[in-house]
Design goal:
Layout (H helix, E strand, L loop, with lengths): L1 E5 L6 H10 L3 E6 L2 H9 L3 E4 L5 H9 L3 E4 L9 H16 L6 E7 L27 H9 L4 E7 L2 E3 L6 H12 L2 E3 L6 E6 H14 L4 E5 L2 E5 H12 L3 E3 L9 H5 L7 H7 L8 H7 L5
Helix pairs in contact: 1-7, 3-4, 4-5, 6-8, 8-11
Length: 291
Amino acid sequence: MRVFVTGASGWIGSAVLPELIAAGHQVVGLARTDASAAAVTAAGAEVLRGSLDDLDSLRTGAEHADAVVHLAFKHDFTDYAGAGRTERAAVTTMCDVLEGKAFLFASGVALLTPGRVATELDEHPMRGPDAPRGGAEELASQYTNRGVRTVSLRFAPTVHGAGDHGFIAELVRIARERGVSGFVGDGANRWPAVHRADAAALVRLALDHAPAGAAVHAVAEEGVPAREIAAAIGHGLGVPVAAAPVDDFGWIGRLFAADIPASSALTRKELGWTPTRPTLLEDLAAGHYFI
């Protein structure tokens, strides 16, 4: 298939590109900057210059593809509502020209069912244009009924590995700055996690095999207790570990305090996905978060 990938040079996208190419797909990656274009070319994919704000480029990429893997997102927590509106416009623009084709898009497990283990059968509660990510799952479901093979790629909040600059890297930065690695409350709340390479392999499997309307869970570990994450960070930095107020963690505090376990049992069974890469705690023990 000819596959158009947004976020092609991003943290997950840069791992997805070689997976798709190795599987025999012809890949076109969206690139906003010269550096992104160079990275996409180096991976062996074609380049389409554009961005999430350039709806013409998104429409062109989708029109000339057999499938879209939409991984780009504006991770701007100072204007998360604006990021959601951008996401909704991007999804609408691409799905409008994808009848009879596939649309796989990044979502998450973090907001599904706080306090209990989320499964692939749970409907995403975020709905409407003002919801986080623009209510993309509900929006995409409307296109399933219009002949688009939509697949929700629900990633764990922590997609880890060497070079990770996401949530775990932020927790490391905070612990280094404060001189203590913290957790909220008793630290028993759980965070799902997946290694970047395992997540990329799942995207490829979902592209080839997931049915229309499916939600797949890129979750290798159902839930790592926050206090164990804090302990691993404390060990890596050589700082004490202690409970801390949620406000000590800034913008990430409420998410780090949440209990958001998630299962991937149905994904593994239906797609034959078997995560094999290091766990989150193994990655923290490897030391690359502390360089």
